[in-house]
Amino acid sequence: MSVNDTAHSDNVAWNRQVYHRLKLALSLGLRRQIFVGVCDDLNLRNQVAARLHSTLAYPVGQVLYQPSNSPPASTPAYPRLVTLRLNLSDPNPIVQINQWLTNYPPPILETSKDATGRYLPIPAFQIVGVEQLTRQPVAVQRLFLHYLRLSEQQMKTVESSLLLWVPRPWLYAIQQSAPQFWRCRTGVFAFAGEPTPPIRNKTTPQRFSSPRSVDLNNLEQSFIDESVTPGELRAAASVTDLNGGLKRSDLESIINFADDYDFQTDKSVNRGHKPQENFQIKSELVTNKSQPPDSNNKESPRNISPLPSLSHISKELTELVLATINTEIVQDEQHSWQPQQILQEIEELHGQGASLETLAAAYHRLGNFYRLRIEQGHSNLENLMVAILAYQEAITYDEASPQVPDILNDLGTLYWMLYRTPPNSEEGQAYIEQGIEFYQLALKLISPQTHQETYARVQNNLGTAYGDLARFSNPPENWQQAVLAYSEALHFRTADMEPLKYAACQNNLGTAFWHLAQYNQPMVHLVKAIASYSEALGHYKPEEEPLKYGMIQNNIGTAYWNLAQYERPPDNLELAIAAYSEALKYRTAAVVPAACAATQNNLGTAYWHLANQSQTPREARQQLLEMCVIAYEEALALAHSLSGVPLSFDVFATHNNLGLAHYQLGTEQYFTVDKSSRSQHLEAALDNHLQALNGLSKQPEAYSSTFNYVVKTVRAFHNELGIQGQNIALSKVPGQLLPEILSKL
C-alpha cells in the first residue's frame, strides 16, 4: 500500500460518513429542505445517486399500508425519492418537480388500516446533470442561476425536499450568483473524489467572479507540490524587503509522496482507481502466504458468542480489537465477527501448545485483516494500533519467517500513518523515527540482488520518512538521507522495468534535492532537482496523466525560479515562466482550482522578478508587469471563490504583490501609460493594499509593512495626480486609519 493509497483510504472513509449523513437527512422525510450534494467525480456521483435511489425510492419489503381484507403482503410503493435529470433547455428544478407531481400524483390510501383516505407522502427529489450546463451557452447558465435565485418563493409551492448535485465550480458560482438559494440550504454534503475532466470544446465554463487587484513588495513565494491528500499543499511565508524589493526566498516545499509508500499487499485486493490529484503510483502486488480467513467457510456471524476470557493474549491487543468493533463507522456484522474469531483461534492455539510458527501465522492473519481494513478506508488510531501489535507479535514468535522483511516494511508504514493520524502531531517525530528503524531492519534482512522489488520499495519508503523527519529536526542531514535512499531505490527500480514507479521516485528525489538546496550547495542541488523532475516528466503523457504532468511542470518552474536567485536570472526566470505556463494547461480552474490558483500565483511572481531584472529591456518591463497583474488576478479570483478550501499561498501576501505591481505600472515614468490609466493602476494598488491590511491585523510586522505601502500609494496619488488625486485616495481609506495616514503625509 502506498502513502497515496492512504489518501485514497481517507477519501473512502470520508465519503462513507458523508453518504450516511446524507441518507439519514433524506430518510427523515422533512418537508421543503434544500440539500446540496457536491462531487467533482462524475462516476462517484452517479454511484452515490444510484445507491440513494435504490435504497430510498422503493424500500425493499416495506409495507406502506395493509388492506384489512387481505393477507400480509408488501404492496407497490409510491417512491420516497425521485431522481430527475436537469432539463438543459429550461433548467428550472422546481418546475420539473411540479411537472413530475402533476404526472404522478400521490395515490390515496383508501383501504389503509391507519390512514384511510389519506395521500401517500410526497417524495423528495434529487436533481443530477448540473455539470452539463458547462457545455451550454452562457445564457442558459445564467437562466439556471436566475431560477435558483427565485427558489425561495418557488419552494413555497411544493412540499418536497430537494437534493441538488453540483460539481465544485458550480457550487462556487451558486454561492456568489444565487445567494437567495444558498441562504435557503439546509445542508451541504461534499464528497471527495477525482475531478472528471471536462470534454474539450469551444465552450468553457463562465467564471462568475473576478476580483480585480494586485501587490509586489511582499511577493508571495512559489512552492513545490505535495500530493499526499487533495488540497494539502503548503507554501513558504514571503520574505519582505522594506526598501521595496524582493529578497531571495526561502521556499518551504512539501515532498510529493508520489510513489508507493507500500504495505505488502495481497493479490486478492482490488486497489481501484485513485484520484489523479494525489499523484500516486499503483504498486505491484506482493503475494502473502497468510490470508485473512474466508468468512464463507465459517458459521454465521450471528451465531458467534461474546469473547470468552483470553488469558494468553495481551490485554492491550484484546481491548483494542473490542474498541474497533464497538466504534465501527458502518455496522458490518461480518467485519465485527471476523476479528473476534481470529482472537479465539489464537487463544485456542496458545492453549493447545501450538508451534511458534503456527502462532506467528495466526497473529499475521490478524494483522493482515486490519491492514485490509485500513486500505479500505478505516485508518483510525485503533485499527492502526491493532495491526502494529499483531505484526509485532508475529515477528516475536517467528523471527526467521521469510515474510519478516515485508512485515517490517508494513510496520514502518503503519508508524508513518500514526504520525499522520490526528491527534498524534506531538508524538509525530517519535513515530517517524520508529518507522525508520523498521525500514532499516527490513533492509538488513534482504539482498537487493535477490529481492530487488522489495528492496527498492523499502528504500523509497525510507526516503519519504526521512523527508518527514526533516520537518522536526536536522533538516540538512535528514534531507541528505532522503536523497541517498531515493537514489538507492533508483538503482534497482529502472525505467525499463517499472516506468511509473521509476518516474514517481525521480519526482521524490527531485523534491529532496530542492529541499537540500535550501541549506547547502544551492546551485548544485537545484540543478540536480531539475534533472530529476525532467527525468520523471519524460514518463508521463499529458493526455493520459494531465494532473501529474502539470504538477511536475509546476515543480520544475519553482526549481528554475529558485535557481534564478543564484545564476543567469533572466534565462532561468524565462524557463520558470515557460514551465508554469505549461503546467496551467492541465492545472485548470475547472478541474483543480486550488492548484491552478497556486501556479498562477507562482507565475505572477516569476513575471515580476523578470520585469525587475537589470538586463530586461525597458520596453519589455511594462508588458511583463501587465502579465504579472493578470496572473495574480487569476490566482486571487480563484482563491476568493474557494471559500473554506485550504490554499498553498497567502492570499493577503498576493494582494500586496498585486498592489505593488499596479503601483509600479502607475508610477514608472518611462512606461507608455496615460494619466487615466495611471490613476486606475494607483486605485487598484490602494484597493489591494487595503484588502491585505484587513487580513493582517494579527501579524504586526506584516501589518506595518502593508500600512507603509498604503501611505506610499497615497503619496503617489498626490505626485501623479495632484491634490485632487490625493483626495480620491483618502476617500477610499477607512476613517479609523485617516489620522495616522495624514500624520505621515
What would you note in describing this structure?
The structure is a single chain. By secondary structure, the chain is mainly alpha-helical. Helix content is 55%, strand content 4%. The chain is built from 25 helices and seven strands. Mean pLDDT is 77; it is low at 1-5, 59-76, 111-116, 198-262, 264-305 and 328-334.
Label this structure with key terms.
single chain; 745 residues; mainly alpha; Rossmann fold; five-stranded parallel beta sheet; two-stranded antiparallel ribbon; 7 strands; 4% strand; disordered N terminus
Topology diagram in text:
Blueprint: H1 3-27, E1 34-38, H2 42-57, E2 81-85, H3 93-103, E3 108-109, E4 118-119, E5 124-128, H4 138-149, H5 151-154, E6 162-166, H6 168-177, H7 179-184, E7 187-190, H8 315-326, H9 333-351, H10 356-375, H11 381-397, H12 404-420, H13 428-445, H14 452-469, H15 475-492, H16 499-517, H17 522-537, H18 546-563, H19 569-583, H20 593-611, H21 618-641, H22 651-667, H23 675-694, H24 700-732, H25 738-744
Parallel strand pairs: 1-6, 1-7, 2-5, 5-6
Antiparallel strand pairs: 3-4
Arithmetic mean of pLDDT: 77
Which structural class do you get from the secondary structure elements? mainly alpha
Strand order of the largest sheet: 2-5-6-1-7
Helix content: 55-70%
Strand residue percentage: under 5%
Protein name: Tetratricopeptide repeat protein
InterPro entries: TPR-like_helical_dom_sf
